[in-house]
# Entry
Amino acid sequence: MSTIVLRTTKGSALTNTEVDNNFNNLNTDKVEKSGSSMTGNLSFADNAKAIFGAGSDLQIYHDGSDSYVSDQGVGNLVLQGTNLRLQNSTGVDYLYAANAGAVSIGYNGSYKLATTSTGINVTGLTDTDTLSVSGNTTLGDASTDTVTVNGYM
# Structure
């Protein structure tokens, strides 16, 4: 916080040094419009937005209950990274996308669906209303597993 020197009595002017010091103090805690780096936090009140772009295209804010990253402009909201993770507040993955590789979707801390180079891998049960399969299909190990379709083995 800057300190500004004032005179409380009428007619007692500031010295040139005090005026210069006031000017320097006023400009000490400012960030330049370009080329500056912040070394601390920038805090916003609830419902106050960090707005980017000439048309307020990107907005980041918290409304007191929920947090938002909102793309209000034309085009796409693009998130880029070597790997991408969407996590809950304790760091458990909802979704993990590996660089040029698998995308895995989790449930309660365990990945249940993942893309592979040949398709998808499902861990656990699959519940579908309809299943349509084309081409050759292998279900289990024919020597040890039993496949039942409409009551027939």
Notes: DSSP finds one helix and eight strands in the chain. The beta strands are 50-52, 58-62, 67-71, 84-87, 93-97, 103-107, 110-116, 119-122. The radius of gyration is 30 Å.
